[in-house]
Design goal:
alpha+beta
Length: about 130
């Protein structure tokens, strides 16, 4: 999952306990690899999905804004025009000692725009 560097750090440090998204992940996803966007451009860690909650942006902000770290104005700017918001509740974070560049994974996955599914075989190799 592509996450801006400051939010990736906040998740892996335990300060950001929820990741906000406009699209729901597949229901069988349990583990998320955290790809920190440029300038880092590497997989920096992982987390387990505790659960995914959905609702209107206002509802999700009311329920999760206090643990999402993102400022309220940025949250509502991100969801402008969206009918639904998804809150991915984070648990069991792990920061990798050595961040993993995508080109070290075979076959090389594309840089995810928002998120991409990595087959279990490739995820295990990471």
């Amino acid at each position: 999952m592509s996450i801006h560097g400051r939010w990736a750090d906040a998740i892996l440090d335990g300060r950001k306990q929820v990741e906000f998204r406009k699209r729901r992940l597949a229901s069988d996803i349990e583990t998320v690899l955290v790809y920190a966007t440029a300038p880092v451009s590497k997989i920096v860690g992982s987390f387990t999905i505790d659960r995914i909650e959905s609702g209107s942006p206002a509802d999700i902000w009311e329920r999760f804004g206090h643990v999402g770290v993102i400022p309220k104005d940025e949250f509502f700017s991100y969801y402008e025009g969206a009918a639904f918001a998804f809150a991915i509740v984070v648990s069991d974070t792990e920061r990798f000692d050595v961040p993993i560049p995508l080109d070290s994974i075979e076959p090389r996955p594309a840089v995810p725009q928002s998120f991409a599914y990595l087959p279990a075989r490739e995820a295990i190799a990471v």
